[in-house]
Design goal:
The chain has an eight-stranded parallel beta barrel with strand order 2-3-4-5-6-7-8-9, surrounded by ten helices. By secondary structure, the protein is of the alpha/beta class. Helix 2 packs parallel to helix 3, helix 6 runs parallel beside helix 7 and helix 9 packs antiparallel against helix 10.
Length: 285
C-alpha cells in the first residue's frame, strides 16, 4: 500500500527501529526491494534521487514504483531523495510521489528555511511528507587516499539547537542530519557522532534520517538507531550487489539480458532483507 513518511517513521521513532530507504533506478532494483519487504513484512521506502536521473528519469521511475507500491502487501513510501531544485520536487508531487526531500543544505541557513518551508506547505497540500537537511552530508569522493580531506567535516555537522529552530520554522516531517556520515562507498571507516544524534533526537520531535548508510558497520547502525535514527538511506550496497551478481552470471557471450535479470533481482532482495533485519523493521509492516 502507498503511504507517506509519517505512516512508517513515527511508529519507528516510538519503537526504536529504523525503516530503510532503498533507491530503485530500474525495475530489477524495485522488484528485489519490494520482494524483500513483503517476505519480511517490513515497511519500506523506495525512490530515487535527482543525481540518479541519468540512469532512471523521474517520470519513467514513477511508471513502475507507484503501481508496485499501491499493489504491495506492506506499507511502501515512494520518495524523491535529494531533490535539488524546486521544479524537481513539484514534478515528483504531481506524478504522485508520497514523499519528497528538498535538499537546500548548501544554501545559507535563512535560504534553507525559506525554501523548505514553502515546499513543506506545498507537499502537505498533496498529502505528501517532506524531509529537510540541516548541516551537510558530503560525498566520500572528497576523501583522499590517506583518509584526509581538504574539508573539515565537523564544520558541516548538524547543530542541535539550530535543528529545533529549523524544524519549528519549516514544518518538515523528517530531518536528515550530518554526524560524520557521507554518501557513496567509504574509503575509511566513518566515525559517527552518536552523542550528537542523541542530543538532536532529544531536541526535535520529528524522526531523524541517516544518509550514507552503505558501508557502515552493523554496530554503527544499531547504535545510531538506539540513539534516535529512524530512517536510513541505502543505495551503494544494493547497487554493488546487483552488479556483482550479474558479473558472476555472465560467463560467456551466449548469455542474454534475460539470463541475468533473475540474479540481479535476487541479489538486491538478499541485500535489502539483510538491512531490514539489521534495522529491526521485520514484522512491523
Amino acid at each position: 500500500m502507498l503511504v507517506n513518511l509519517n505512516d512508517v517513521l513515527l511508529p519507528a521513532k516510538k519503537a526504536k527501529y529504523a525503516v530503510g530507504l532503498f533507491n530503485a533506478v530500474n525495475l530489477e532494483l524495485a522488484r528485489g526491494i519490494i520482494r524483500a519487504a513483503e517476505e519480511t513484512q517490513s515497511p519500506v521506502i523506495v525512490g530515487t534521487a535527482e543525481v540518479l536521473f541519468p540512469y532512471g528519469p523521474l517520470e519513467e521511475v514513477s511508471y513502475y514504483l507507484l503501481p508496485m507500491a499501491k499493489k504491495a502487501g506492506v506499507p511502501v513510501v515512494v520518495h524523491l531523495d535529494h531533490g535539488l531544485n524546486r521544479e524537481t520536487c513539484l514534478k515528483a508531487l504531481e506524478l504522485g510521489f508520497s514523499s519528497i526531500m528538498y535538499d537546500c543544505s548548501t544554501d545559507s541557513y535563512e535560504e534553507n528555511v525559506r525554501k523548505v518551508k514553502e515546499m513543506a506547505e506545498i507537499a502537505h497540500s498533496y498529502g505528501a511528507t517532506i524531509e529537510g537537511e540541516l548541516g551537510h552530508v558530503g560525498d566520500n569522493e572528497d576523501m583522499t587516499d590517506d583518509g584526509t580531506s581538504s574539508k573539515d567535516p565537523s564544520m558541516y555537522y548538524t547543530d542541535p539547537k539550530m535543528a529545533l529552530d529549523f524544524v519549528q520554522k519549516t514544518g518538515v516531517d523528517a530531518l536528515a542530519v550530518a554526524v560524520g556520515n557521507a554518501h557513496g562507498a567509504y574509503k575509511f571507516p566513518p566515525k559517527l557522532d552518536f552523542a550528537r544524534i542523541r542530543e538532536i533526537a532529544a531536541t526535535v520531535d520529528v524522526p531523524l534520517v541517516l544518509h550514507g548508510g552503505s558501508g557502515l558497520t552493523d554496530l554503527d547502525f544499531k547504535t545510531a538507531i538506539r540513539e534516535g535514527i529512524s530512517k536510513i538511506n541505502i543505495f551503494t550496497d544494493i547497487n554493488v550487489a546487483a552488479a556483482k551478481a550479474v558479473s558472476e552470471r555472465y560467463t560467456d557471450a551466449g548469455k542474454g539480458l534475460t539470463d541475468l535479470i533473475p540474479s540481479a533481482v535476487e541479489a538486491v532482495r538478499r541485500e535489502s532483507e539483510k538491512k531490514m533485519r539489521l534495522f529491526d523493521s521485520v514484522g512491523k509492516g
